[in-house]
Amino acid sequence: MNILGIKPKVLAIYGATLFLSLHAYLILYINSSFLGKFMSESAISLLYIISAVFSLIFFWNIGNLIKKVGNFKMSLFLAFLAFFSTLVLVFSNNLVSASISFVLYQFSITSIFFNFDIFLEHYANNEKVTGSVRGAYLAISNTALVISPLIVSFLVSNGDYVKVYYLSAIVLLPIFYIIIYSFRDFPDARIKVIKNFLVLKEVYQWKDIWNISVARFILEIFYVWMVVYTPIYLNQYIHLPWSHIGILFTIMLLPFALFEYPIGKLADKLCGEKEIITIGFIIMSLATVSISFITTQSFVLWAVVLFLTRTGASLVEITTESYFFKHVNSKDVQDIAMFRSSRPISYIMAPAIAGTLLFFIPHNYLYLILGIGVMFGIKYTLALRDTK
User: Fold this and answer.
1) What domain range includes position 338?
2) CATH number for the domain that contains residue 127
3) Is this model's pTM higher than 0.90 or not?
4) How does pLDDT run across 3-40, given as a tens digit for each residue?
5) Cα angle at 337 between 77 and 48, to 5 degrees?
6) Which of 306, 180, 143, 341 has its CA nearest to residue 234?
7) Containing H/E element for 308?
8) Is residue 100 scored above 60 in pLDDT?
9) Does 132 reside within a domain?
10) Which helix (H) or strand (E) holds 82?
11) Cβ partners under 8 Å of residue 79, min gap 6
């Protein structure tokens, strides 16, 4: 039975995504501050890099892994690993246990979103509504992203993050039921398994996919840079309390919940993705650069600027997602893996670049450099053949 024309399996993916996203986003913006109790900013950067290397190895071998294990079993294992590592992180009281559990957590949470991509691409394979389906998928995920900082602002006091990690672990539990009930009979597609360097060569020669992948990579660099360093900057340099930061981040993230579904439908029916991505990069760049020059604690000013950064990002996110998945299907596991590799690679490059820069420049100039870097996304966007 379809609800509002949506297949039951797609609804199950949407439900699982909501819980998974809430689990991940509750601790997304406090991880760096929590780890700061055990290590320096440079060490935190290194930890993100190590986590990303594990994820990258996973993505590069995903074709063979799914062929041997299956998407159902793999997603179930990764959900358990995310749950287990979150609990271990809660009880960590030293550098070693915090580091190991964080690396395992980052790897598992990055990887399981990929498994959901495979489920969704199989059950929602009508390319004429890709933007709408992906827009709804991202809107559900980003609803959790929006409300999470607000929840954190009520739970965190005096640097006590434990309650947030407990809640994060609890909201992951329904996912086990959804995966087992809905996807235990998932028919793994007859995927193409080819050597990674040949996949990279294929993607590079497929110019539209190469250009959209580079544009997405720039977006992922932006995300990681902001996630790791913005909470530290607002709290330790601008001296805003977490009660204010949590509300600020909720306002900042509203564009993901408000804009992505209608923009996805717009890309399907009217103008295509190319123009929207370009506008998104321009807004992202200008708003990010302005952060470097704001020294006031004005709540309203910070809310406006941060909201604009994510307005641009939301336009780029849904349209890069829509464009890419209009060109692939669930059998193209390794092509999808290469596309999703932009996230772990960004977790390697962004902390490496920003962590190095912090030895030479003040923290606030990180955003000037990031904003200028974001502008390079326009070059690859303009090279795309539009879908309209």
Assistant:
1) 8-382
2) 1.20.1250.20
3) no
4) 445 577 778 888 888 999 999 888 887 787 778 777 77
5) 70
6) 306
7) helix 299-325
8) yes
9) yes
10) helix 71-91
11) 20, 108, 112, 172, 175, 176, 179
